[in-house]
Write a structure and sequence with these properties.
This protein is α+β, with helices and mostly antiparallel strands. It has 3 domains: 4-53, 2-Layer Sandwich (Uridine Diphospho-n-acetylenolpyruvylglucosamine Reductase, domain 2), CATH 3.30.43.10; 58-175, 2-Layer Sandwich (Uridine Diphospho-n-acetylenolpyruvylglucosamine Reductase, domain 3), CATH 3.30.465; 181-293, 2-Layer Sandwich (Enolase-like, domain 1), CATH 3.30.390. Helix content is 33%, strand content 27%. A 5-stranded antiparallel beta sheet has the order 4-5-10-6-7. The protein has a 4-stranded antiparallel beta sheet with strand order 11-12-13-14. α5 runs antiparallel to α8 and α10 (245-258) packs antiparallel against α11 (270-294). The chain starts with a strand and ends in a 9-residue tail after the last helix.
């Protein structure tokens, strides 16, 4: 089966945008291709007149740590590269943990973080962590570049606000955790075949100066709704509460009562996933709290 008619390997962001403009909506961006090419094969996406390969653009393949405590992560970085980055392991731990469970090693070696976000699926593991980290996203187009909060990119399941025939997702900006802060990611999946996520949860916590109570909390879960879900009410209820297991237990039970996932024939029943919300919120918050209190990340990553 023919998946495309023409193929162009872009050397720069400007080069990629020029090819997109030249084909006026009939070209398609491709990076790792682990989602797009399957969609074309399965008839869920039209055969492309032109695929624009952005995997060799240097700017999209860089991770830069800024003096202000933020990280700029190129959208073309693979999940495996994020998983291997020592500083991200320590200070963006949930992102590393979520990228470490995407597919298998072969998928992680080619699938990109930008593709994970651009595909706009509410179960996307890396996306959930970026939402919990309040990431900003840079989008390039013929009119220039613009930064947007990541949560503005999702219009529904598989529906992105980014037009892949005219726009290019270039970088993510993530504020790294500091003293008294940490994050964690937990997931339940179906191990058969494609390791399909049943439910995932990313948590980020910041403690007060004495490390006795929660000063800030972020919880991102999916798939619970049509887009990656922030449990805003649960986050607010935790702020100011003692940083201990009792507060986390109350939050976990509240999350179970407040969030209502649907039954999915590919994932699990609504009843089971509702039970797992409580489990994952408890586990993710507990791991993040433990790390924030000790300023350390357990040696959970394999070399």
């Amino acid at each position: 089966m023919k998946l495309w008619h023409n193929y162009h390997v872009a050397t720069s962001i400007e080069d990629a945008l020029a090819i997109l403009a030249e084909h006026n909506g009939r070209a398609q961006i491709v990076a790792g291709g682990t989602d797009l090419l399957l969609d074309i094969q399965q008839g869920n996406h039209p055969v492309a007149e032109m695929l624009v390969d952005i995997s060799r653009i240097p700017e999209l393949r860089a991770i830069e740590i800024q003096e202000d405590g933020t990280a700029l992560i190129g959208a073309g970085i693979t999940h495996a590269e994020i998983n291997a980055h020592a500083l991200l392991r320590e200070r963006a731990t949930c992102l590393v943990e979520s990228c470490g469970v995407v597919g298998g090693p072969q998928v992680r070696n080619v699938a990109t973080l930008g593709g994970n976000v651009a595909h706009a699926l509410p179960a996307a593991d890396g996306t959930l962590s970026l939402v919990a980290l309040d990431a900003m996203v840079e989008i390039a187009s013929a009119s220039g570049r613009e930064w947007k909060p990541i949560r503005e990119l999702f219009a529904g399941p598989g529906r992105s606000a980014i037009n892949p025939t005219l726009q290019l997702l270039t970088r993510f900006e993530v504020r790294l955790t500091g003293p008294g802060e940490a994050s964690a990611f937990k997931r339940i999946m179906r191990p058969q075949g494609v390791a399909l996520p049943v439910l995932g949860c990313a948590a980020r916590v910041a403690l007060d100066w004495g490390r006795n109570s929660f000063a800030a909390v972020a919880l991102s879960l999916g798939p619970v709704g049509p887009t990656p879900t922030r449990a805003a009410e649960i986050e607010q209820e935790l702020i100011g509460q003692p940083a201990d297991a009792d507060s986390i237990e109350v939050a976990a039970q509240a999350a179970r009562a407040a969030l209502h996932p649907r039954t999915s024939k590919y994932r699990a029943t609504a009843a089971y996933r509702t039970e797992m919300i409580e489990v994952l919120v408890r586990d993710a918050l507990t791991a993040a709290l433990e790390r924030a209190q000790t300023d350390s990340v357990r040696e959970i990553f394999r070399a």
